[in-house]
Write a structure and sequence with these properties.
GO molecular function: aldehyde dehydrogenase (NAD+) activity
Family: Belongs to the aldehyde dehydrogenase family.
Structural class: alpha/beta
Strand content: 15-25%
Keywords: NAD, Oxidoreductase
Radius of gyration: 26 Å
Organism: Psychroflexus salarius
Distance between the termini: 62 Å
Largest sheet: 7 strands, mixed
Number of helices: 16
Low-confidence stretches: none
Pfam family, one: Aldedh
Length: 460
């Protein structure tokens, strides 16, 4: 979209919001139901588009894209009316007589920048929250998933007037033009380096924002783990979407007595999941682009691969691979991997994991496989991360009652379910004073200083 067209769209949404700042819940619910019906009508197109972008299996589209979106829609349709109602707050006796309330009001004009790895779900889920709260939205999907972006544009244009919600296509220049505008709220999902650019760009307007980023998520396996179940769950969590998941395990920290058995179990489960020839499996995604493939291939070429490593650039295929303990200053340990490569480190004592985890920015997720409660408590209390799971991977994302988000370099703010409602509204406090009593002590002349000092002594 040309810059002039973009500015016209932006201005039309600003004008629309000025006259529609408090839409009624009935109309919001009606729109959400229309969005749900439109998504349902286009399910097959969504599946085909995501497969065309990077060969994501239909089952993964159904479970990690559509299921999550339907779940979020149903939750907002059921609860948005009660969530939007002003909340009565007990009054402070100093304001007697009064009635106090907190109103949740929309921010206004929102920009949502979505990533390519879950190109439908990570675009629509925040849009649901933003629209349900009464905001306008310009959605910028990723240019790396063009087929999905076109389906997104079709769905949004069929449900909403562009003055309320619109999809803007484009690459880096388009994103820069969008970020140059003054937004009431920005919601970004993507990599840490781009997240920093977004944050810097909107800082000049002091724009409130959410950053859903990533990080190097540690996966710790102690001697008290059920190794068979742990291996199966790690493989699922790591290699779903070919490892292109922000909350996927990024590296393994395993008790040294379990390493040999883990590798053996890993090989067995990989073959059970994907067959002997993984490249022929229709249950395994491909890498999104040549650029991303080349980056991952460079990791393979410069590190010691102890399992896997097979790759095919023309098909953007990289097999699930185990990497022998890289140096901590190597590229693979300085960046979020975001692919099907899994470095593995060993430790003798659990305290040793600190030497690695503390040297890396705070991760989006941490996973611990152990049945020992003392070990579980140690890992939860001693490390800072966005969210975590004991004895599984990535499943905390499913519970919409849990806030999802990072900390430090892995993100700012959270969303999902009611937490999305809190993200896409701000609290407006109102004290409604009554007129039947008007206590005069606050008014001049201030000849009550001595009396007030006695009153103040109760608080000192």
């Amino acid at each position: 979209m040309r810059e002039a067209e973009l500015i016209n769209l932006y201005q039309s949404q600003k004008n629309y919001f000025k006259t529609n700042q408090n839409p009624d819940s009935k109309s919001i619910i009606s729109q959400l139901k229309c969005l749900k019906a439109e998504i349902k009508a286009n399910e097959q197109l969504i599946i085909e588009a995501i497969h065309a972008d990077f060969k994501k299996p239909e089952f993964e589209v159904l479970t990690t894209e559509l299921f999550v979106v339907y779940k979020e829609l149903n939750l907002f349709i059921k609860n948005i009316n009660s969530w939007r109602k002003p909340k009565r707050i007990s009054s402070d006796w100093l304001n007697f007589p009064s009635t106090d309330k907190v109103y949740h009001v929309p921010w206004g004009n929102c920009l949502i920048i979505a990533p390519w790895n879950y190109p439908f779900q990570l675009a629509i889920t925040p849009l649901i929250g933003a629209i349900a709260c009464g905001n306008t939205v310009i959605l910028k999907p990723s240019e790396y998933a063009p087929n999905t972006a076109r389906v997104l544009e079709t769905i949004i244009s069929n449900v909403f007037d562009t003055k309320q919600a619109a999809v803007v296509q484009g690459a880096v220049e388009t994103a820069q033009n969008l970020l140059n505008l003054k937004w009431d709220y920005v919601f970004f999902t993507g990599s840490v380096p781009v997240g920093k650019i977004v944050s810097q760009a909107i800082a000049k307007h002091m724009t409130p924002h959410t950053l859903e980023l990533g990080g190097k998520n540690p996966c710790i396996i102690t001697k008290h783990a059920n190794l068979s179940i742990a291996t199966k769950r790690i493989i699922w969590g790591k290699f779903i979407n070919a490892g292109q998941t922000c909350i996927a395990p990024d590296y393994i920290l395993i008790d040294q007595t379990l390493k040999t058995e883990f590798i053996k179990e890993f090989k067995k489960q990989i073959e059970a999941f994907y067959g002997e020839n993984i490249q022929k499996s229709t249950d395994y995604s491909r890498i999104i682009s040549d650029k991303h493939f080349d980056r991952l291939k460079n990791f393979i070429d410069t590190e010691q691969v102890i399992y896997g490593g097979q790759n095919n650039r023309s098909h953007r295929f990289i097999a699930p691979s185990l990497i022998e303990a890289p140096k901590l200053d190597s590229d693979i340990m300085q960046e979020e991997i975001f692919g099907p490569l899994l470095p593995i480190f060993t430790f003798q004592d659990l305290n040793e994991v600190e030497t690695i985890i503390y040297k890396i920015d705070k991760p989006l997720a941490l996973y611990a496989f152990t049945t020992n409660k003392a070990e579980q408590n140690y890992l939860i209390k001693n490390f800072d991360f966005g969210g975590g799971v004991i004895n599984d991977c990535i499943v905390h994302f499913v519970n919409d009652k849990l806030p999802f988000g990072g900390v430090g370099a892995s993100g700012l703010g959270n969303y999902h379910g009611k937490h999305s409602f809190k993200t896409f509204t701000r609290q407006k406090s109102i004290v409604h004073r009554k007129n039947y009593i008007d206590i005069p002590i606050k008014y001049p002349p201030y000849n009550k200083t001595k009396l007030f000092k006695k009153f103040l002594s109760w608080f000192r």
